[in-house]
Amino acid sequence: MKNQLREKLASNLTDLDLDIVQEDALTPAAVAIAVTxxxxxxxxxxxxxxxxxxxxxxxxxxxxxxxxxxxxxxxEAALREMDEEVGLLLGPDTLLGRLDDYPTxxxxxxxxxxxxxGPAPNxxxxxxxxxxxxxxxxxxxxxxxxPDMISIPESDRPVIRMxxxxxxxxxxxxAILYQFREVAMHGRMVRxxxxxxxxxxxx
Length: 203
Description:
The chain is of the alpha+beta class.
């Protein structure tokens, strides 16, 4: 069953005609969707709550990730950040595929990469960056109330949210997770760069 899931995710991601954003004004960054298992053995992904000590986007829901360092590829940035933030060291051979770039209001261009992490038994969150770490069942992304779209006076674009546990995850993370659900999990080719972020994520 797990091999079938791995093959399905990789096949669906291969079918996506990637939308790559190239804007010099944006800082390149990468995030990782690491497909693993929860405590019951069910397929899951890793999600974090950012540390309250961070200067920007403190306490927000986030996938492991960060800006691209000089001399490294975006794939290398995603792998490095995953290791630094949650103690998950994977190789490039675990890559299942990639999702569309997502430009953020805060000046980043996020490139999401999807990895097959396996059970990943010994994760160690970095307390300087991560307040808490969660293994979210993939099925959580299929909740009927997700995605939830709201309007804000500051933009004519809909703000996208995804219901996770007892909370709402906002864009950019929500937009990336929604595309992961649609493309990788269900083979439906959707775009998400037109979805807005809440104002608190603009800075």
